[in-house]
Design brief:
alpha/beta, 7-stranded parallel sheet, elongated
Length: 245
């Protein structure tokens, strides 16, 4: 039985082929079948093969992509792992603790766990492609984790907390897709653009809304309803700004 059939682990720019192999092994340990690599193809590297041990199939079947955007094209929710924190004053880095991630098996759709480079982690524009960013608790003196260790910790946490003892049952609802959430953002952004905000506050206002929806795990029906409401608000704003005859 595969404990997490809807989980996908995405490695962005892995620099050490041995780490890539160790990550494949961790996926096998904790019931995840799909690995994706953004950047250099490490699948046939001898160290990657050696350290994947009995997870050769996961490593060999890993998808290789040129960009994170293409790797997430068919993903419904993306969660980015980062050691960087901006505190309460940083709306673009509103981090969710690892312990507060929801049960992947309680959500419909494909969910990607996105991990960055060993040296620099994920860049800001890569985190922005994800629905939320989460952090792994570690010492403040040295919070940066080895890539394969970070993946293992996250998967162990999810496995120990959420691995089902029985096969999953079909869902009555489905999660909102990436395209459905983008529609909400489009209409909300149009409203923000019409407000009398200072220029530097406009991207912040837009990002806060994305942070909220990213942490809400909304269903397709909920997002559809929200899209209709926000679209109507956008239309009313546009009507008010039309010049009178």
């Amino acid at each position: 039985m595969t404990e997490f059939p809807n989980l996908v682990v995405v490695l962005v720019g892995p620099e050490n082929p041995g780490n890539t192999g160790s990550v494949a092994r961790a996926l096998g340990n904790f019931g995840v079948n799909e690995l994706r690599i953004v950047g250099e193809d490490h699948r046939q590297d001898q160290f990657a093969q050696m350290l994947s041990v009995h997870a050769h199939e996961i490593l060999n079947n890993a998808g290789v992509f040129k960009s994170l955007g293409s790797a997430l094209a068919d993903i419904d929710l993306a969660w980015a792992a980062t050691a960087r924190t901006g505190g309460n004053h940083s709306v673009t880095r509103a981090l969710v603790p690892l312990s507060e991630l929801p049960d992947p098996n309680a959500l419909e759709g494909r969910i990607a766990l996105v991990f960055g480079r060993e040296s620099t982690g994920l860049f800001n524009d890569e985190i922005a492609l994800c629905d939320l960013a989460f952090t792994i608790p570690a010492s403040k003196e040295y919070p940066s984790l080895n890539l394969s260790h970070a993946v293992s910790i996250v998967l162990y946490h999810l496995f120990s907390k959420f691995a089902p003892e029985e096969p999953r049952r079909p869902y009555e609802t489905r999660a909102a897709t990436y395209q459905e959430r983008e529609q909400v953002y489009k209409f909300y952004d149009a409203i923000v653009d019409h407000l009398n905000l200072k220029e530097h506050k406009i991207p912040i206002a837009k990002q806060v809304f994305r942070n909220l929806l990213g942490r809400a795990y909304m269903t397709g029906r909920e997002v559809s309803t929200l899209t209709g409401v926000i679209r109507r608000i956008s239309e009313l704003v546009n009507e008010r700004e039309k010049p009178e005859d």
